[in-house]
Amino acid sequence: MFALLAHVNCRPTKTGVSFTWEGTWEYDPVSGTGSVKLRKDGLLSGKIRIKDGDDSNFITERTEEPDEPIILTHVIYKIIMPFTPIHIGPGILVKAVLPSSFSLMVFGWTQVVMDIQPLIVMITGKGHVHGFTHTYVGAILITFFSALTGKYLSEIGLKILGMAKEKPITIAWWVALLSAFIGSFSHVLLDSIMHTDVEPFYPFTLINNSHGFVSIGALHKFCIYSGLAGAIIYYVARCRTNKT
Ligand SMILES: [Zn+2]
Predict the structure, then answer these.
(1) 65 lies in some domain
(2) Centroid of ligand 1 to alpha carbon of 160 (angstroms)
(3) Which of 8, 29, 124, 240 has its CA 20 to 30 A from that of 165?
(4) Residue 122 C-alpha to ligand 1 middle, in angstroms?
(5) Is 125 part of any domain?
(6) 114 and 182 together in one domain
(7) CA of 135 to the centre of ligand 1 (A)
(8) 218 C-alpha to center of ligand 1: Å?
(9) CA distance 146 to 84
(10) Rounded to the nearest whole angstrom, what is the distance from the C-alpha of residue 25 to the centroid of ligand 1?
(11) Is residue 233 in a domain?
(12) 34 alpha carbon – ligand 1 mean position (Å)
């Protein structure tokens, strides 16, 4: 699913409305223009143009008022869901290879922390979507923040999930730091390949050489398959230790 979230500015014309719009397509900033007319059958027909991109015609379908109100958290969930979890795949692989030196929970928490800034920008429509948090310098700060908060949150999470039944699990500081470090740096690397507006080497240069290094489809496959490979390695290793 693709989501376009945009703020629209309308101007009435003789036959309908013309508009400019500015927003985000997935996480990439986009803008454009468009126009709509009211047809005799009550439907709206129009054209939407993407700046430096395609334009397409559309006819709106009349919709009924939804049974339930559309709550902002549902919208946020729909936007966040397809993107943040993609980063988890490589984390599962690292967990399988370094089971006792890596915390998947701290890693996962880091992914959430990384994407708070883009989410706020998408909702408010103000600021740079992949701003300072998606730079390698920003990733250093996020490493410390996510390790500090993630260590305690993960220990509580493990308790709630019943994974620390016999005795509470404490995550060593170096494990929390390593997991948050791998989490934030891999996030910047993956996003700099995926999104046009990431400036990973800010403030040293605004050039992003990594963009388009591989196609988005190939990148998604890499993340999904590395997660699957990690899950298989983890499962096989567990079966072996249970046997011995
Ligand atoms: Zn991101």
Answers:
(1) no
(2) 27
(3) 240
(4) 12
(5) yes
(6) yes
(7) 10
(8) 17
(9) 15
(10) 14
(11) yes
(12) 29
For residue 77, the CA-to-ligand 1 centroid distance in Å is: 15
* 47/144 same-domain check: no
Ligand 1: centre distance to CA 53 (Å): 23
Number of neighbours of residue 7 by Cβ within 10 angstroms:
12
Mark whether 210 and 127 lie in a shared domain: yes
pLDDT at residue 135, as a whole number: 95
C-alpha 101/C-alpha 142 separation (Å) is: 19
Cα–Cα distances in angstroms (integers) from residue 55 to residues 8, 43, 50, 58, in the given order: 16, 20, 6, 10
Instruction: Assess contact for 8 and 19: CB atoms under 8 A.
Output: yes
Asked if residue 209 belongs to a domain, the reply is yes
pLDDT tens digit sequence for 75-131 = 655 555 545 678 889 999 999 999 889 999 999 999 999 988 888 887 787 888 888
**Domain membership of residue 84 as a residue range:** 72-243
- d(CA 16, CA 37) in angstroms, rounded, equals 4
Tell me the pTM: 0.69
Whether residues 25 and 126 share a domain: the answer is no
Kindly give the distance from the C-alpha atom of residue 181 to the centroid of ligand 1, in angstroms, as a whole number: 15
Burial classification of residue 45, based on how many CB atoms lie within 10 Å of its CB (0-12 exposed, 13-18 middle, 19 or more buried):
middle
Separation of CA 55 and ligand 1 centre (Å): 27
Structure tokens at 18: 């013309």
3-state class percentages of the chain: helix first, strand second, coil last, to nearest 5: 50, 15, 35
